[in-house]
Every structure is written in structure tokens, then in C-alpha cells.
Amino acid sequence: MDWLAEVATIKFFNSLTLHVAISVVDRFLKRQRVTRTRLQLLGVAAMVLCSRFAFACQLIIVTQ
Question: Does the predicted TM-score (pTM) go above 0.85?
């Protein structure tokens, strides 16, 4: 998962987004086998989804 941490650093994602994305990937891998190339796709997709969710939560907190 070091490469996922590198992506988070390059794209300026916060640490919470990284930890949640790793959790999502881990939960998925408990249920489904994935090839190495698909693992990278899964990791990036999880990172994008978690960043969108974190951004939406920040907007809700700021507007309240």
C-alpha cells in the first residue's frame, strides 16, 4: 500500500482520506480476489471515492 500513500501525497489528499481508502480496499479484498493491475485500479478508485466523500462532509460541516 506504499504506492497508494505516494498517490495520496502527490494529489494532496489528507491522511484521513488515505486511511479510509485503505480500509475500503482491505474490506473489498476480504471478499474478492484481484490481480495486481486491478489492485491499482481498485486503490485509486477507492481514493477518489473517499476524497469525494470527505469533501462532501467538509461542505456539510462548514455550511452548518
Answer: no
CA 49 to chain centre: 6
User: Residue 54's domain spans which residues?
Assistant: 2-63
Residues 6+ apart with CB under 8 A from 27: none
Cα(20)–Cα(47) distance, rounded to whole angstroms?
8
List, for residues 1-56, the tens digit of each pLDDT value.
788 888 888 888 888 888 889 999 999 999 999 998 899 999 999 998 988 886 66
The number of distinct structural domains making up the chain is 1
DSSP 48-62: HHHHHHHHHHHHHHH
